[in-house]
Amino acid sequence: MSKVGETTLVLDLEALEHNYNYLRSKIKPETKFLGVVKAFAYGSDMVTIAKKLEQLGADYLAVAYVSEGVLLREAGIQLPILVLHPLASNFDDLIANHLEPSIYSKNILEQFLEAAKAQKQTDYPVHIKFNTGLNRLGFSEADVNFIAEETMHSKCIKIVSAFSHLAASEDKNERDFSLNQIGSFKKMSNTLMDKLGYAPMRHMLNTSGIINYPEAQFEMVRSGIGLYGYGNQAHVDKELQPIATLKTIISQIHQIDANESVGYNRAFKSDQAIKSATLPIGHADGIGRQYGKGKGFVTINNKKAPILGNVCMDMIMVDVTKIDCKEGDEAIVFGPQKSAENFAAAANTISYEILTAISQRVKREVIKK
Ligand SMILES: *Cc1c(COP(=O)(O)O)cnc(C)c1O
């Protein structure tokens, strides 16, 4: 009998390289490429991915929070790192680690100017975020004067880029909205450049933006999900390779008689004799309760085994009545053959959510061919 192994997220760096090269092939050679590695590189392994992207020739990295950038610096990453959502309480750490803040509000601009001055910085690189319709973070057009005046009066900071973010770049039905966002961004960044008297880089496109609006690539693009092998659209998915495979094993098999139940709250009740397999993966590993009651399934010996009843913290039970399998056999939750996007869709969510949900308890294994 095969040895019991633990639940593992296997990461394929050749797939990452393939995806990087594919995305790069969609933009001009001179356009810079920023790899988004926030949230543990979409639930994979931030340092491993960042190192590989650095080696592949990415120009920039981005994280959401300062603490993520600090981890990258501690691991020796040299690339410039944009912090998309810094908070004023983290500015000293940010500066100490040479991380570059997104400046998204008047408040943040003033507080960063103060921090940069206190730390005796000159020309500290910052990135101006414009809100063009997502209504999440960013300055509006009316703030451009304020930004230009504040930065020109201070020698502490230098605007190295202006950027914005599309709200629905994967949605063809929202094409007019996206084009409108691109138009507003051009207008705002042009006004800013006029007032500053120099031209910072501009960037607006995420993965689906690269595919659908290549004319708006400006000087840089920012890709996350595409690097990890998902394209939000079937024709793009075909070109990409998921880098992560989530696998586990069967720890025990039970014969369940008719009129028995499986798991907490007796959420599954059998009306006939079935065979169940218990797997060492649960909601504490990222498989949320929404995948229970037959919505999510794993693949065992190439066959679908739906989740029976409720997802437990550390386990799921799956239906293997029709599967020839034994304790110790492998179960695949998602991977190149069985996409995380389909798994997520079964529970009404998206690849981004299931990928980033895989908790730190799950062992990461990197295959280097
Ligand atoms: C997360 C994020 C991205 C990456 O988006 P993908 O759809 O994963 O390519 C780009 N820009 C910003 C501002 C983000 O927050």
TrEMBL record:
Residues bearing N6-(pyridoxal phosphate)lysine are K38
Q: Which UniProt keywords apply?
A: Isomerase, Pyridoxal phosphate
EC number per UniProt: 5.1.1.1
Recall the GO molecular function terms of this protein's record: alanine racemase activity
Q: Does the keyword Isomerase apply?
A: yes
| Pathway annotation | Amino-acid biosynthesis; D-alanine biosynthesis; D-alanine from L-alanine: step 1/1
Necessary cofactors: pyridoxal 5'-phosphate
In which residues is substrate bound?
Answer: R136, M313
Pfam families documented for this protein: Ala_racemase_C (PF00842), Ala_racemase_N (PF01168)
Residues covered by the Alanine racemase C-terminal domain = 243-367
Catalytic activity from the UniProt record: L-alanine = D-alanine
Q: Gene3D superfamilies per the record?
A: Alanine racemase, Lyase, Ornithine Decarboxylase, Chain A, domain 1
Q: What does the record give as the active site?
A: K38 (proton acceptor), Y264 (proton acceptor)
| Alphabetical list of InterPro entries matching this protein | Ala_racemase, Ala_racemase/Decarboxylase_C, Ala_racemase_C, Ala_racemase_N, PLP-binding_barrel
Q: Which PANTHER family match?
A: ALANINE RACEMASE, ALANINE RACEMASE, CATABOLIC-RELATED
Q: Which NCBIfam families match?
A: alr (TIGR00492)
Q: Which family does it belong to?
A: Belongs to the alanine racemase family.
Which HAMAP family is this protein grouped with? Answer: Ala_racemase
Protein role = Catalyzes the interconversion of L-alanine and D-alanine. May also act on other amino acids.
What protein is this chain from? Alanine racemase
What organism, scientifically named, is this protein from?
A: [Muricauda] lutisoli
